């Protein structure tokens, strides 16, 4: 169809070009065939809202991180699964600290970038599929807003059950979320209202990502308040034991596996 993107590994292509621009190695997008062009991740929401975000931060070293990222990695202990590892910025620091870390991602291109940057232990796929591999973890990291992978009321039980199936006794999840409800922007408050009318959580975003001619299929990504998270976790194998909201509207949620 005219104007529709080709479905492909948006994150993979985007991170590959971001790495090329950062290092000067390999083919990279150039302005006028000469100057490196910054790589921009295009995020489309199903109400027509479009946002562009520079992708360079996916490669950022710890000196450029937000304080909550540091607090999150400081809490990782034991065998750690970095869920949605991206370009590996978190996994690289954990590796350096001697924490046994595995990066998991659905994007083959992202994993390729991680490998080239030195992340040693990588898994391609979803948490659900990884259960069959037999590996088990003490810490799960959902950083870079990846609490969003919980998607909404329908997916949450399955996602949390898959994490529990991958968990050792006493395991923890450290997840970075954003409370979406502080805004007065009518574009967002109207979207939240429309979602609720359709039986969805207010911040249950329906998104697709685009880069150059590529697009992802539409997917749900949850931006929720700590109260909504508590309710999603309530009947799961996990307990919400802590919400660190020192950097409002961002927060770090800690979930602990219930005793069996
Ligand atoms: C917003 S980025 C965060 C990257 C990284 N955690 C960081 O903080 O820099 C989201 C990452 O999650 C990956 N991802 C998306 N859906 C996933 C899924 N269902 N399972 C595992 N990874 C997924 C994407 O490919 C992407 O690399």
Automatic annotation (TrEMBL):
Set out the biological process GO terms recorded for this chain's protein.
methylation
Q: Does the keyword Methyltransferase apply?
A: yes
Organism whose genome encodes this protein:
Micromonospora thermarum
Record's SUPFAM superfamilies? Answer: S-adenosyl-L-methionine-dependent methyltransferases
A Gene Ontology molecular function term of the record: methyltransferase activity
| Top-level taxon | Bacteria
Q: Which residues form the Methyltransferase domain?
A: 81-169
Q: What is this protein called?
A: Class I SAM-dependent methyltransferase
Name one matching Pfam family: Methyltransf_25
Question: Which keywords fit this entry according to its UniProt record?
Answer: Methyltransferase, Transferase
């Amino acid at each position: 169809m005219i104007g529709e993107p080709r479905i492909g590994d948006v994150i993979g292509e985007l991170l590959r070009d971001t790495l090329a621009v950062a290092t000067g190695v390999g083919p990279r997008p150039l302005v006028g065939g000469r100057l490196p062009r910054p790589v921009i991740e295009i995020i489309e929401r199903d109400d027509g809202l479009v946002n562009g975000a520079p992708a360079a931060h996916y490669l950022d070293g710890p000196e450029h991180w937000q304080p909550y990222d540091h607090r999150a990695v400081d809490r990782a202990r034991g065998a750690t699964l970095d869920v949605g590892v991206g370009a590996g910025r978190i996994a690289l620091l954990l590796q350096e600290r001697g924490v046994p870390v595995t990066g998991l991602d659905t994007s083959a291109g992202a994993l390729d970038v991680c490998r080239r940057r030195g992340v040693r232990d990588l898994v391609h796929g979803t948490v659900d599929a990884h259960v069959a591999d037999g590996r088990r973890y003490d810490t799960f990291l959902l950083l870079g807003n990846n609490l969003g992978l919980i998607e909404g009321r329908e997916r949450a039980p399955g996602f949390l059950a898959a994490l529990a199936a991958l968990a050792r006794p006493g395991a923890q999840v450290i997840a970075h979320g954003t409370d979406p409800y502080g805004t007065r922007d009518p574009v967002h408050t109207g979207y939240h209202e429309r979602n609720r009318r359709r039986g969805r959580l207010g911040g249950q975003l329906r998104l697709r990502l685009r880069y150059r001619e590529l697009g992802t299929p539409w997917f749900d990504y949850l931006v929720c308040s700590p109260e909504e998270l508590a309710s999603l976790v309530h009947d799961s194998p996990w307990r919400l034991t802590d919400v660190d909201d020192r950097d409002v509207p961002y927060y770090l949620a800690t979930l602990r596996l219930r005793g069996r």
